[in-house]
């Protein structure tokens, strides 16, 4: 009996020394992608990067990409269709972050890893589905915009058109309730004030233009009709709105080029090709780069890990942020001197 027991123990020890074979990585991954709106300029760069890095990956990635066209109900229906497919992971760019819980629940119930991006849901939503958010830190762009204006204000006393020591400004806001829009709107102004600037909103409140060039242009034209000569700076939550503002300014002889006699700083976010071109031509003061290519690369890498049952960032250059549920893509400043290198 003792010999038999010793033999069993020896066998058990030998077996424990045999390395556990890891599950083989998938050689083909089916990846669903929900996009809030294909024709959004910035999101178009992210979408192109997702396609690019999926094509370059060492594994075959089949993308099923859906355009919600800015309609949350439509995106909900698209999610219902995707979860019925043999997906290995799903990337989600919410139309409305307030509806993200429903999307998270659908993914969890279907056993599909969920990776939200660009539009940030609440932390508890990410935790509820063991998901991940890939995106920027919402306040960072606004802080950079405030710093950009403060630096310009210090270098160019002539920007204080009426010489009163106060910056009369406007903020063009993407959309009410959107976390990125809210943060960029508030932090751009508060950071300028933190740098010692005295700020006064010409309109008294942000101008909502829903991220759109035409809406920003129409609003700016109306404001100029009442306040031409009184505006000394304009913050815009994105470059598309900044370009609309610039078109309205150009129409009344402002910001036609870097040497224009009538010129006020307009500062955007995203560093789109059109935005950088406007900086290079002297029509726009600066922007804050939101790196769509870097976001697309990160999304593909974490999605491959998720599809293979690994930790999201295992073996990548990325780290989970302090909140435990996100990977952050940093912003950077783009001014005339750096725009030349873009």
Oligomeric assembly:
single chain
Main beta-sheet annotation = 6 strands, parallel
- The share of residues in extended strands comes to 15-25%
Report the total helices: 12
Helical residue percent band = 40-55%
User: Which shape, going by the Cα principal axes?
Assistant: elongated
- Widest sheet: strand ordering: 2-1-3-4-5-12
**H/E series, N to C?**
HEHEHEHEHEHEHEEHEHEHEHEEH
Question: What is the SS-derived class?
Answer: alpha/beta
The number of E-state strands comes to: 13
N/C terminus separation = 78 Å
Taking all Cα atoms into account, the compactness measure Rg is: 25 Å
Catalogue the unreliable spans. Answer: 1-22
Mean pLDDT: 92
Brief digest:
The chain has 342 residues and is of the alpha/beta class. The protein has helices spanning 2-16, 41-56, 72-82, 100-110, 123-128, 138-155, 179-194, 213-227, 239-251, 273-280, 292-307, 336-339, and strands at 28-35, 60-67, 89-92, 114-117, 132-135, 166-173, 198-201, 207-208, 233-236, 266-267, 286-289, 326-328, 332-335. The protein is built from twelve helices and 13 strands.
């Amino acid at each position: 009996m003792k010999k038999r027991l010793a033999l069993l123990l020896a066998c058990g020890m030998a077996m424990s020394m045999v390395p556990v074979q890891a599950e083989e990585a998938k050689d083909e991954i089916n990846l669903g992608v929900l996009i809030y709106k294909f024709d959004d300029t910035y999101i178009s760069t992210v979408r192109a990067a997702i396609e690019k890095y999926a094509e370059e990956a060492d594994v075959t990635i089949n993308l099923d990409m859906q355009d919600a066209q800015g309609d949350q109900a439509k995106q909900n229906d698209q999610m219902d269709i995707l979860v019925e497919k043999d997906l290995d992971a799903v990337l989600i760019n919410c139309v409305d972050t307030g509806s993200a819980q429903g999307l998270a629940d659908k993914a969890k119930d279907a056993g599909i890893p969920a990776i939200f991006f660009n539009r940030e849901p609440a932390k508890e939503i990410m935790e509820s589905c063991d998901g991940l958010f890939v995106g920027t830190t919402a306040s960072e762009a606004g802080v950079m915009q405030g710093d950009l204006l403060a630096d310009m204000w210090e270098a160019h006393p002539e920007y204080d058109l009426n010489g009163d020591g106060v910056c009369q400004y406007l903020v063009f806001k993407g959309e009410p309730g959107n976390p990125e829009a809210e943060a960029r709107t508030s932090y751009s102004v508060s950071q300028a004030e933190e740098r010692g600037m005295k700020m006064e909103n010409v309109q008294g409140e942000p101008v909502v233009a829903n991220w759109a060039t035409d809406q920003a242009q129409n609003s700016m034209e109306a404001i100029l009709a009442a306040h031409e000569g009184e505006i000394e700076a304009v913050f815009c939550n994105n470059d598309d709105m900044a370009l609309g503002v610039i078109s309205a300014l150009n129409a009344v002889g402002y910001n036609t080029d870097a040497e224009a006699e009538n010129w006020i700083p307009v500062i955007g976010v995203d560093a789109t090709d059109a935005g950088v071109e406007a900086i290079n031509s002297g029509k726009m003061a600066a922007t804050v780069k939101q790196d769509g290519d870097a976001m697309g690369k990160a999304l593909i890498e974490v999605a491959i890990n998720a599809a293979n049952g690994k930790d999201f960032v295992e073996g990548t250059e990325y780290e989970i942020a302090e909140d435990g549920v996100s990977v952050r893509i940093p912003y950077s400043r783009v001014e005339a001197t750096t725009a030349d290198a873009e």
